[in-house]
């Protein structure tokens, strides 16, 4: 993906596939250096799943907007590399979130239990207490310099990483300057979309909601959850409308519509044959997702759905020949299969 002319020294040039693979391994390894699992709306597997989805969306938007895919692919891969240092959001004496001069929320720092190149670079530059978009850019500069990449290329990648979190307290002129490069707009859009719109965000919402319910009340009730989905979708509309690029706004609004249709299906399931839908339908699928609530892994759970959960129910339906509810069960399972297909397309940024 990195073109010729990207390296300082042609002797150091190596197959870019190897660089990508090495960085992928490094990012994955880095996320495992902390022993804690859940912090706020993040959990151990989330950050890696999110990184791959953001990269796919960056490439999709980059193609549409004619941006530099070499810079985007590396920036997306590294954009949250220091995210695991972020602990709980700090608050002041009145319980309000503490912010820095740019309006970024401030977090408690979580120290890794083990070290690697990333943590050593983080320590060497004393990046503690700073926002992860800034520290990620600093670490990326060091990592990419080790590959002998050109200074300009490295600086552009670092700028993209830094832009993935939009500062709140910038003047319109400063904001326009920061987001002048198309790649900076794209990573911000891709990162925002992943957490807020589409089935990918719905999966995240299930896990945020259920974890909080289990912590506070000891159990998750899918019937209580369903009515909250429409409110949540409406709350996310400003995120879809506020994206930088035309391509992102278009995809995000399609995703919003898809979620609205999903919310209608959930209401029908909940108000209809509840017990059957809990066994064969989207309600059952949600409960299956919640069964892995401690550290849910989207890609693994999807494989389990396809390889076990759905085939098991197909076999039950086969066994229930002559049952009055067989067609309804079959339709309910069809909704789950449809959901899985659409979610897989979103993960690959095809939708
Ligand atoms: Fe981030
Ligand atoms: Fe991110």
Walkthrough of the structure:
- The chain has 351 residues and is mostly helical.
- 66% of the residues lie in helices and 2% in strands.
- The protein contains 15 helices and two strands.
- It has helices at 16-31, 44-64, 69-78, 117-124, 132-145, 151-163, 172-178, 182-196, 198-217, 222-241, 246-271, 274-280, 282-291, 298-319, 326-347; strands spanning 86-89, 107-109.
- It has a two-stranded antiparallel sheet with strand order 1-2.
- Helix 5 (132-145) runs antiparallel to helix 6.
- The chain is globular, with a radius of gyration of 22 Å.
- The model has no long low-confidence stretch (mean pLDDT 93).
Helix content: 55-70%
What string, H for helix and E for strand, traces the elements in order?
Answer: HHHEEHHHHHHHHHHHH
CA-atom Rg in angstroms: 22 Å
Total domain count: 2
Structural class designation: mainly alpha
**Which small-molecule ligands are present, each listed once?**
fe (ii) ion
* Range of strand content: under 5%
Topology, element by element:
Blueprint: H1 16-31, H2 44-64, H3 69-78, E1 86-89, E2 107-109, H4 117-124, H5 132-145, H6 151-163, H7 172-178, H8 182-196, H9 198-217, H10 222-241, H11 246-271, H12 274-280, H13 282-291, H14 298-319, H15 326-347
Antiparallel strand pairs: 1-2
Helix pairs in contact: 2-3, 2-8, 3-6, 4-5, 5-6, 6-8, 8-9, 10-11, 12-13, 12-15, 14-15
One fe (ii) ion (FE2) binds at residues 50, 54, 79-80, 191.
